[in-house]
Amino acid sequence: NAGVMQNPRHLVRRRGQEARLRCSPMKGHSHVYWYRQLPEEGLKFMVYLQKENIIDESGMPKERFSAEFPKEGPSILRIQQVVRGDSAAYFCASSPEHQASYEQYFGPGTRLTVT
Amino acid sequence: ELKVEQNPLFLSMQEGKNYTIYCNYSTTSDRLYWYRQDPGKSLESLFVLLSNGAVKQEGRLMASLDTKARLSTLHITAAVHDLSATYFCAVVTTSGTYKYIFGTGTRLKVLA
Question: Which residues contact A114 (CB under 8 A, 6 or more apart)?
Fold first, then answer.
């Protein structure tokens, strides 16, 4: 059973470009969470999605960031007009149910560098 | 709002020594996780602690949970160089979205 997959693993963008980060949850998991890790910090929650629905985006910056989890295909975190401060590692996690008793399984992360 | 604090933030220790990392959290939670992260890598799950008084051990690492004190500890016994990494604790919120709240991490360096 493959784990959570993320691609690309490394992404370099110039300021003002768009970044698209993809996350394929584990098989059978329909709940996806995105976290961001700034350098030298812990992970911080960004958004929680179920298929075709954004449930909680309280951790997402109000502008330039968006997320989706379509009926078919991976979840996508999109950052428009990237700035240097967006440089970070972005991790997604998935779980089979949205319950505190179900562990979230983390992917390998996408490291975004904005030049 | 649930807050998680770890200390120390940095820890440099000699091989063979023992030390403890502390994780305090501000409100009730049902479970606490410990992770290891090597530079540029993802999180490696170490322990899941589910109840008051829970203690788990794996090799030279032992984790415990005191839900009344809202405190978890990660004890390192007879450290070896391979344990050098950053260690995070994370607590799950118990209402609304079940998001993980991570501590700031403890960067451990074990000197040969």
Answer: A12, A13, A14, A15, A82, A83, A84, A85, A86, A87
Whether the CB-CB separation of A112 and A11 falls below 8 Å is answered with yes
**Are A101 and B45 a contacting pair at CB < 8 A?**
no
Mean pLDDT of chain B: 92
Q: List, for residues A73-97, the tens digit of each pLDDT value.
A: 999 999 999 999 999 999 999 998 8
Q: Which residue has the tokens 């203690």?
A: B55
Tell me the C-alpha distance between B42 and A93, whole Å. 11
How many CB contacts within 8 angstroms connect chain A with chain B? 59
Q: Distance from A16 to chain B by nearest Cα, in Å?
A: 25
Q: Do A108 and B41 touch (CB under 8 A)?
A: yes
Chain B nearest C-alpha distance from A48 (Å): 8
Question: Would you call A111 helix, strand, or coil by DSSP?
Answer: strand
Burial label for B19, CB within 10 Å (0-12, 13-18, 19+), is: middle
- The phi and psi torsions of A110 (rounded to 5 degrees) equal -120, 125
